[in-house]
Amino acid sequence: MKVNPKKCIGCGTCIAICPVEAISFDKNGKAKINQNKCIHCGACASSCPVSAIDQN
Predict the structure, then answer these.
(1) Which tens digits make up the pLDDT trace of 4-54?
(2) Which of 26, 38, 47, 51 is geometrically suited to a Cys-Cys bond with 22, CB 3.0 to 4.6 A?
(3) What is the secondary structure of 2-47 as a DSSP string?
(4) Residue 53 belongs to what H/E stretch?
(5) Domain ranges of the chain
(6) Which pTM does this prediction carry?
(7) Which fold has domain 2-54?
(8) Does residue 45 contact residue 17 with C-beta atoms inside 8 Å?
């Protein structure tokens, strides 16, 4: 999973839905994914209202 910071609006939907708490905000208020925690379930990508998360 990878966040496109240009698309991310910082809404927090992905953070709320992540089952392993792998997502947080960076210093700019954009989502960032901890790749060591991420289980690649796709919940964040499917919940993102602006399609800022790529499943690749």
Answers:
(1) 999 999 999 999 999 999 999 999 999 999 999 999 999 999 999 999 999
(2) 38
(3) EE-TTT-----HHHHH-TT--EEE-TTS-EEE-TTT-----HHHHH
(4) strand 53-54
(5) 2-54
(6) 0.91
(7) Alpha-Beta Plaits (3.30.70)
(8) no
